[in-house]
Amino acid sequence: xxxxxxxxxxxxxxxxxxxxxxxxxxxxxxxxxxxxxxxxxxxxxxxxxxxxxxxxxxxxxxxxxxxxxxxxxxxxxxxxxxxxxxxxxxxxxxxxxxxxxxxxxxxxxxxxxxxxxxxxxxxxxxxxxxxxxxxxxxxxxxxxxxxxxxxxxxxxxxxxxxxxxxxxxxxxxxxxxxxxxxxxxxxxxxxxxxxxxxxxxxxxxxxxxxxxxxxxxxxxxxxxxxxxxxxxxxxxxxxxxxxxxxxxxxxxxxxxxxxxxxxxxxxxxxxxxxxxxxxxxxxxxxxxxxxxxxxxxxxxxxxxxxxxxxxxxxxxxxxxxxxxxxxxxxxxxxxxxxxxxxxxxxxxxxxxxxxxxx
Length: 358
Fold this sequence. Notes:
It is a single chain. By secondary structure, this protein is an alpha/beta fold. The protein has a single domain, classed as Rossmann fold. Helices cover 44% and strands 16% of the residues. The strands form three sheets. The protein has a seven-stranded parallel β-sheet with strand order 3-2-1-4-5-6-10, with helices on both faces. Strands 7-9-11 form a three-stranded mixed β-sheet. Strands 8-12 form a two-stranded parallel sheet. The longest helix is centred in the first third of the chain and has 25 residues, at 99-123. The radius of gyration is 20 Å and the shape is globular.
């Protein structure tokens, strides 16, 4: 895909954590026009892109991926040059309590999007057709759990999902590849490690720890905190996704990792230490750490081998473990109005009021 002129990109899930960071990158740094398609579930927050609302290269459409007719209308109306598919239910604990929503959004929604993209792509001609791309964005959780001494997941690692969330994402990955192999749709797939950074919904580990510290509340850590994750700064991930879209080979999968493996307890202690420095309390924040019952099917270790994307596309993460987390903590300290409105539910109440008036 050549970047010789402005591209219009349809981003699904653009009001979410990774999506909002990607949309901002595309519009403000990559000279792209973006159509942000989002259902606006509890984790989709338009306020994360408030600064782009009046931007001439940004459009928002509220559409459920399970509404096939609405999807077709979006393609007809906006005529995108590419699709970057990030929309997904993504919280493991929620998938355990209510797996149905994960099947609907992640599996049925992806199927509908693939079908709409295929019909649209078939209608194109010339360079518009040959340049079209469908980038399916997934997770390292589809690979299951790694032994402590095993090498990181690579693009040939067999799938072994253990939660309703990871199973639904694995299914969506298989659908995307099947539409490439069966119908010729120009698909690429990425699988990333755990993301962190600005605008992450306050149910995930890192914002939970930061906000528990700021409220002087107990900090819950599953099990003994021995689970290991490879942490990827969301800005680095957004850059990687754009790199794959522009330079990636059709039909290929690229694993995106941060080269930052840490035990959860080490991560939590790091966040506490940074907060001790930036916003000291009456006592060290780490004294509030409490170990809680582990969740079912909790994979012990994830780690990504990013050799392929580094060698083929010359991408590597810029943020280190220390620099990325310090940036993240500082962002939450600087933006209390964003997370406070989520914690008290105000952002959803105002949205529901607007929808009722409409």
